[in-house]
Amino acid sequence: MSADDAHLLIVDDDERIRSLLQKFLIRNGYLVSTARDAAHARRLLAGLDFDLIVLDVMMPDEDGMTLCRELRQRISTPIMLLTAKGETSDRIAGLEAGADDYLAKPFEPKELLLRINAILRRVPQVQVKPTLPKSLMLGPFRYDVERGELWNGEDLIRLTATESQLMRIFSTSPGEALTRSQLVEELSRSGQQTQERAVDVQITRLRRKIETDPKQPRYLQTVRGSGYMLQPD
């Protein structure tokens, strides 16, 4: 995760420290919000998602250790504790409360930055899969992505096994050019043994089923120098 993608929450009752850390971390590319106490932090956490929490231990009303322990029961957001106590027993207590790191005051802002960077590098990146449409419209034809069926109005169009696999491959990347070698590779994964020249033949046959004029394809287009692309309405 890069700094440009990360949103940090600084929780500290000392306004001067909050302000200094916020300015410093913003200068280093982070989006930073601040909270003056545990209650304020909870309100922010209820409405926003953060990538890391920098939490002071010594705060009035409710200390950071208690808040850390409570947060760890319901969220997995990395937490770094800041404290004026640097004893080994205090660090152990912080880690047992669920903190990912522990930094004793006073500290150099640069060290805090390096520790934050290190923690975020360890956070696994969640790959968000794009949501595919349930069906693709190709003029009078409709391709049902989930069922792998091609329809012309109420009539089901029969597809061969290879044609069906090609439609499945193209439907996962509509508007994106796929090379012949990519198509061969994808077909081989589904058990279809073919070669690049054979792909051209299959594309020609498929066009006859989905194009009004197969010689001037509107939907299954040839991308010069790249391959083929399915371009639905």
Sequence of strands across the biggest β-sheet: 2-1-3-4-5
* Share of β-strand residues: 15-25%
Low-confidence stretches: none
Number of strands: 11
Structure overview:
With 233 residues, the chain is of the alpha/beta class. 39% of the residues lie in helices and 20% in strands. It has 8 helices and 11 strands. The chain has helices at 15-27, 38-47, 64-72, 88-96, 109-122, 161-171, 180-189, 196-210; strands at 7-11, 31-35, 52-56, 79-83, 101-104, 135-138, 141-144, 149-152, 155-157, 220-223, 227-230. The strands form 3 sheets. Strands 2-1-3-4-5 form a 5-stranded parallel sheet, sandwiched between helices. A 4-stranded antiparallel sheet has the order 6-7-8-9, covered by helices on one side. Helix 7 (180-189) packs across helix 8 (196-210). The longest helix is centred in the C-terminal third of the chain and has 15 residues, at 196-210. It is elongated and about 75 Å long.
What is the compact description of this entry?
The chain contains 8 helices and 11 strands. With 233 residues, it is α/β, with parallel strands linked by helices.
Attribute tags:
alpha/beta; five-stranded parallel sheet; four-stranded antiparallel sheet; 20% strand; elongated
Task: Indicate the topology.
Layout: E1 7-11, H1 15-27, E2 31-35, H2 38-47, E3 52-56, H3 64-72, E4 79-83, H4 88-96, E5 101-104, H5 109-122, E6 135-138, E7 141-144, E8 149-152, E9 155-157, H6 161-171, H7 180-189, H8 196-210, E10 220-223, E11 227-230
Parallel strand pairs: 1-2, 1-3, 3-4, 4-5
Antiparallel strand pairs: 6-7, 7-8, 8-9, 10-11
Helix pairs in contact: 7-8
